[in-house]
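Quick bug: PD-(D/E)XK endonuclease-like domain-containing protein output formatted oddly.
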Amino acid sequence: MTQQPVSVDPFLATPFAAAFDWLSRSGLDARQVLWVMPRIETVGSFKRHWAQHHAGLATLGPWVQTADRLSQPAAMGPWLALQADLVGVLRQLPLLGGGSSPSQLWGLAQEYLELALRQVLVQKRNTSALAQYCENNTFAAEEAQVVATLAQTYATELMDLLPKPAEPGGSPPVQVVWFDDGETVPGLWLDLFYPEVPLQVFRLPAIEGPQPWQQLGAKRFNTQPSPLVLQVAPDETTQAQQAAHQILEWLREDPVSEIAVAVLDRLAARRMVGLLAEVGVLVDDRTGWRLSTSNVAGWFDHLLQQFVEQGQLTAIAQPFTGLPLEHLEPWAFGKTGNRYTLAQWAGAFMALFEKYDLDTALQPDEAGQQLLTVLGLMRQVPAQTEFDSHEFLAAWRSWAESQRFRPLDIESPVRMVPLLSTRMRQFRRVLVLGCAQSHFQESPPGLLPPAVAQELGFPGPRLARIQKISALYELLLHSNEVTLVHSAQVAGKSEMLLPELMWLDIVLRDSESHTQHWASLWHHTPSSLEIEVREAPEQALQLTALSNSGSMPDSLRVTALDDWKACRLRFGLKHALPWPPQRDEGAMRYEQLRGVFVHKVLEKTAQHMALPGQPVNQLQAWKQTLLDQAQLVWNTLELDDRATVYPFLKFFDQIVPRLAGKLMERQIQGWQFKGAEQQVEHTLVLQPSGASLALKGRVDRLDTRGGALAISDIKFTNPAVLKKRLADPLSQPQLPAYQAMLNSPGAQLDFLGLHKDKVDWVSFPPLSDEYREQGFQSWGEVLLSELVSELNSFFEGKAVWQANPGDACEYCAVRGVCRPETHPAFHEGMNGEEGDDD
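Here's what came back:
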């Protein structure tokens, strides 16, 4: 029974004060109340507020649960046992396990188990979300079935892994008080364990829209002025320097005052910690590092790697001193290649540690204690699934990557905490490290769409963002002194300030700030960090052809024309000199396999629907054919290729209805499929020299309608973006090239854009009057005319090619050589269009 929720106004009362006032009016005994809070860090603040509010006149029982603990398994040993069993099952399933590495299998098992645990948690609500998702998503069916089967098969074990209530005195609570920040897990947990207990909810503020930021601006700068400072650094290095500088300034004022560093940018945090260490200031890091980053984890990983490669250990160094063990006898476990259970592997390594006193050396270290703990847990795992040495190494790496630790021996007034851990807490001095929009963007869980994820108790991307925004808002509202440090760019790319902070900046502008980039009321640039740098003139990288026609290739691919249009320097380095390959071309990349898969599915679908008697005017027939052909193409792929292209299958499944509609529309318009993946070749005669080279390509799709021909190219790009690009048709040279190579000046040129938001055909515009007046009949003729003239000038040494900075630079292998970032045109051209081409 939920009593009327109370929405807490952050300007009128803190959530604790509102709850304590309600409790005093209710007449309840505080020792019979269960308090549910967002995070474990809130508990200390809660107890302090309780003591202040009641002045020692009331006793508070230790009866608190936190949402972050409720979403974790209660015991690691049984969890490892389930994970080991599941890895054994997954490696037998071709669709899910085939082609996956041992590490990927352990990651899959972890994700499936987390979903199954949520499924058990929501069973009281009889949710059908997972079953519906399984029904409507062909390629996710086996995935969803695994989760559903896990939840059913291991229902008892998973139920035991749910965090259980701790009930002082063995009696259930008389009342539950829940400080709700939007997480669904506490509600699910309370439904399961305390469905009949009265529930009073205090809803923490969910900050959305500009109005709260207007109120915040008035509160901080008008009603109760207190220092709130924004510092914008030009790059990551300066950002870390500014953060360290601010902390040192606060420490000079008060060496023992606690300083909270709310971390959103982990890279900046690491750099800041290093800078402070150089001047003797240690940082108490409470953000929780991954265990895999610790020295102990690296030492044990190296030990296992040596064992995997050699089948034995012939040299072991001490974990902290690096000194070799004396009198070490060569050590091996069983026969090379044999499989053993987790318990047997862990027992063998624990015995090795004990024999050479390595356990004694590891024990004083926090990460060392965690390593010994997990080996001890593994040694007790009853799972009978057996693993070889490679798989045991993968098991260790998966666990080390999933676990967090923090050194406990650092006593410092400077404490780094996650932003969400600052909620419902007040600080005197706070540094917020990282304020970019990207720091507040969240991704949904990998296996499920947001709606289903939220049904299973995950917050979802929108709610996760609101939680972070709300935590930042409360931090700015209630803390005494706050400095926000933002880097204007990261890794050479612009980083936009969080829009909500830009709203606040607008609120704070006065008449003197209208012409400035930031409001002077809060923006501050530390003068001591400003370094004057004299700009030196730069010489652009240029490319000249080799003598004696040494640069001219025998042939040129049509795909190379994209580079030619984007940047002549890039084209010359890659296709004329050529530039050495920048990646291993042996195995096909995801983008290539994605293209192969879609091209083959569309070709097979077109061939099938062209057969006599097919219901070409029925959308369901097109949809079913696409799904059937996708399954057939999938079955022909090698296991490694399946593993590589597997992430695309969910996307393809989602766009099938829209894709089927566009293919049917094409058929209704009278176009008949003629061919796909057709090889074409044309001899380019350079003018005026008469030298020749072969232009080769492969057309994605050809359609005919009477005597008319349509040439199509498949793009994994939003059709809206393709339409923008066709404002300059020659910037997309492949289709015009095929038009000229097929000697079909009247051919229609079409893109088929495939994107998560839209699927559509996008046609080239008619040839412009300007070119028609010059005697050209098609875009293809214009393109080849430019191509044969420019290639001739370059290969004869009459032209010099240099960089053309723009959006083409973003993924260019040559960028590290020509360094276009300093050119103004580079920043103008980086327009951030979404979608990747194939």
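Actually, after a second look the formatting is fine. The CA atoms of residues 724 and 838 lie 18 Å apart. Closing.
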